[in-house]
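User: two proteins, same treatment. go.

Assistant:
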Amino acid sequence: MKSRVLAVFLGIFIATQVSAQEHPEHPKKQTTQATTSKATPASAVEATLVGENFCVGCSLKKASGAAAQCETYGHRHALKVSAATVEGKDVAEMKGWVLHYLDTDDAQSYIKEHHGETVTIKGKIYAEARVFEVSKQTEAKKSEHPK
């Protein structure tokens, strides 16, 4: 009796595993392969971004009570995208994205300064990593909303 129950259980388990495998031409498998190929360094896209340069620590401290110590260690900024242009076309899907700056010489002023400013910057977006490589600042202005 125990061997019969075990055989039935094993049969159900194997059938479940076989049916769960996808056919090589299944659309979901193609999507997964396409997404994986986007994660390569070649997936960097040149863009012009407009957004708010905000301190991640200050923001988390204010919203969630995080133990950020910006006064001691300095601010560490990221960019909250309000508009993105890629190849001359607006990319509405990027609105609201938070992009962290790639540590480069060109990015240092954005990482450490421009607190609460609205900035317009050109560079490369590494979408899978949500990282922005600064190549050129085109405009920066102080936020109209005090922090």
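Protein 2:
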Amino acid sequence: MKKILALLCTILLLAASCASAEGGTITEFRNRVQLNGTLPEGYRFSLLSQTELTLEGKIVSDDPAAPELQVYFAFNESYAHAESLASLDENEMELIRQSFTEEYAVSFSSMTTASGDNLLVTRENSNQFLDFYTVSLGNEIELILVPAENQSLTDAQITRWTEFVRMLDVLPLMG
């Protein structure tokens, strides 16, 4: 019986690792929005906390020198009307940009994911973080790339993770 149980556990672990290697749901929030994609090799998603209105997690490696991608979802009543970042008017976008410049010296750009999601990209000028921000169905979604302790992000890390985020899908769930 123990051998059968061990075999079943091994098969389940292999199936789970193959599923994450091929892509799929990284996390889901409030049964309204999903973050889908293929995690970089050696990385896994770890859920840190979840309430009715927020979710906090991170995509981490076992390598202590590797950067991590912090993942935040939050329902924001102010954006309940917004299907996507493109739905926000210029005043709303300016308020979002101001929230980043209150504490940090940053530069802004934008990008579109392979699935067509618009992202505001905020880069801290001394490479202490790179922030990817969007809105989906009133949910704020923020992905923050941070370096390992006592390091700065390298250009290679920024390029790698920007490409990772570009390939993510933010999928609204209808239910």
